[in-house]
Amino acid sequence: xxxxxxxxxxxxxxxxxxxxxxxxxxxxxxxxxxxxxxxxxxxxxxxxxxxxxxxxxxxxxxxxxxxxxxxxxxxxxxxxxxxxxxxxxxxxxxxxxxxxxxxxxxxxxxxxxxxxxxxxxxxxxxxxxxxxxxxxxxxxxxxxxxxxxxxxxxxxxxxxxxxxxxxxxxxxxxxxxxxxxxxxxxxxxxxxxxxxxxxxxxxxxxxxxxxxxxxxxxxxxxxxxxxxxxxxxxxxxxxxxxxxxxxxxxxxxxxxxxxxxxxxxxxx
Amino acid sequence: xxxxxxxxxxxxxxxxxxxxxxxxxxxxxxxxxxxxxxxxxxxxxxxxxxxxxxxxxxxxxxxxxxxxxxxxxxxxxxxxxxxxxxxxxxxxxxxxxxxxxxxxxxxxxxxxxxxxxxxxxxxxxxxxxxxxxxxxxxxxxxxxxxxxxxxxxxxxxxxxxxxxxxxxxxxxxxxxxxxxxxxxxxxxxxxx
Lengths: 268, 192
Prior knowledge:
The complex is a heterodimer. Chain A is mostly helical.
């Protein structure tokens, strides 16, 4: 939704898509309020509201300034910074919703996800183009990639511990992941063909946002169907006694398998 | 095109593939229950069949048979021996998966989880599964000689005993807590 031109300079298709995404965003906010989903996802409500506000601010800016003006550029990317932070908070919130009831693995999971995301953020920043002109594009891409990796790390964690993700959270995460991945792709292409790609960047960005809005709307429609249940946790003794014993036995099985391995080695 | 461009495209492709894989639910998976975390039968190990497997894989048998039976029969015998080895490998993997499932359930339902224990298990799992695949292909194709597998049975039995002891200790503690709760003097309730 950023980098838009003055309203008169924007093509009809873009204007229609922009209007559609604004309407869907408004519907999403209303759905969050009507279904009282904001109790479970307050950061997500904040994110949706910030998106709406950005659209209003950009629309007002484009009435006054022209496409490509420094003022519009600053407003667009400045508001985008807040929106990315709100999205990161929303992602953390949904991940907590999925794994939070399993206190032990959530404690480990969020630390691993944050560490991996921080590594990815640093690395993608380091390999990005070092130019002040592309500073915002590189920063945007790095943060989006970190968000995508954090979502993936949490999902892999849930998969590893066989935690079932309810459909609503699944669609929310799918929306966030697709949006972040597409933004990374879009930023990477924009970085390469800056001027020539700007209008297509806007169009594809809006289309991705529309797709994500539909997924989030679908997710919120499902949210109320499933009753929340808190699992009964075991005592700390269970983990302290069983986990090392199981690991030792797994190691023994691994050693047993190693006999076949060594037999193969002897032959070769 | 800069290498960074291809790097980001490759990363995105990898992330998308992993994302699809992580969202896929195993067939019939339901929310795990704490009761599934406690192993019920720690003695049900493939180790109990080791004497028979050992006999089936003994090299002296082949030497003995090669002098007395026709080549076709010998070939069939070796094929059957290979099937025994493959079955044994499958049993090892099944036992590994059962233990792994138990360990994951225990971790999922624990209020505290140690990163070191989880990492150790992850490394063991990756190591086991990778070697399992390579060895299985090797045995199936006839590249891998059939090994002597008897001498680790004692070691495995030892680990079974350790796990049994842990489960027994948990049972004793639970019984102690139950007894204290039912006793008139409830001030003494302190399971730890």
